[in-house]
Amino acid sequence: MTIELWPEGAPYQAGDGEEDRPRLAAFPVKSEEPVGCVIVCPGGGYRTRAPHEGEPIARWLNSLGIASFVLHYRVAPYRHPAPLEDCRRAIRWVRSHAAEYNIRPDKIGMLGFSAGGHATAMAGVHHEPGNPQAADPIDRVSSRPDAIVLCYPVISFVQHMHVGSMHNLLGEDAPQQLREQMSGELAVNAETPPTFLWHTADDASVPVENSLLFAAALSRHKVPFDLHVYESGKHGLGLAEDHPEAYLWTTECANWLRKQGFAK
To answer: What is the CATH number of the domain that holds 87?
Structure first.
């Protein structure tokens, strides 16, 4: 099942093709009681969205008893703030439709890979409260995720950055102020959701410092986090089922999600 986030047209929409219309692919689970939910943001450098970081992740979450949605957020030629607005809208949409999908509205998280990890981190640090007076009932609920999972994420646009993601999202001549605003490690505060992070130490595309900087910021602000760095592994591992070390991330993350109340 596919859900358009703005059936009447999305903010900043520049055309009417599939890539102009952000949407969610639903992966529900059957349960007698309401369940936790995690929205998945595949990576792709803000240029595309990697299939192996979408549906397979949702299916893995389903195996834990967690409902999932894969977010088809807008990528280039769309730039900031379109992807962030898509993330906020996705969280609000799921929260406002929680009863319909047998989801707990207080257990809605987001999980992202690489540039999708950046989008997820931005949703975590730049969330907005609901507006009780909004004409659209979806805008009346908060966009804050209750937890975020960052998998080899792009985080910083001021140091150790992934230049391709930065250019696709902000443009090649983005002002320093915008680069700082969109650097997750500089925007963490006490309201940032609990966070699970994993990375490989020799990631040749997105340096591990991205995860380390975000974790250090979480630590300074007393936000609970769980950080896992594996010694070696290429970028874009996804579920990492065939990797001798990083395959453990799904077990560690599952345990963490249970601790956060997303699964039993």
So the answer is: 3.40.50.1820
